[in-house]
Fold this sequence. Notes:
The chain is of the alpha+beta class and 148 residues long. The protein has helices at 2-26, 57-74, and strands at 32-36, 42-45, 79-87, 98-106, 109-121, 126-129, 133-136. 29% of the residues lie in helices and 32% in strands. Strands 1, 2, 3, 4, 5, 6 and 7 form a seven-stranded antiparallel sheet that branches.
Amino acid sequence: MAQTDDQIENLFRFTARFAQEMLSESGDFYPFGATISADGKIAAVSGDVGGEENPQPRDVYESISAQLVRIGAAGGVEGVALVAQVDIPDDLGAQVEKGIRVHIEGDGFARFIYIPYEIRSASETAVHLHELLAVEVQPQFFKAQNPD
């Protein structure tokens, strides 16, 4: 299980870093997904929204989510992540409203990890990250198989 934990942590770090880079470059990003294999290879998962030039972020999110459900059911990966910009729920007590949410799952593990952020300078797009907030959630991509 330790190797799987390491893979999940590597996937989280990769996706969180990429989201931060996108915020630093443009102050915004579309939802994106990723998987990690047993040998540590990370692969991107993008949304298919029918070739729309400027799709709605929600449509992209839902498309990636559907793909990750199929990937999780098929097996062959140690973990999956779905990343989006969100308003952090008030009950989490974040210092700021905006956040990166990494929905990360592996076999027996499912979390929303919120990374609250603020953009401090519009001219330089300096992104300041706050303390992580983790919330256990019901698995969506790695659902337990029911025995027949």
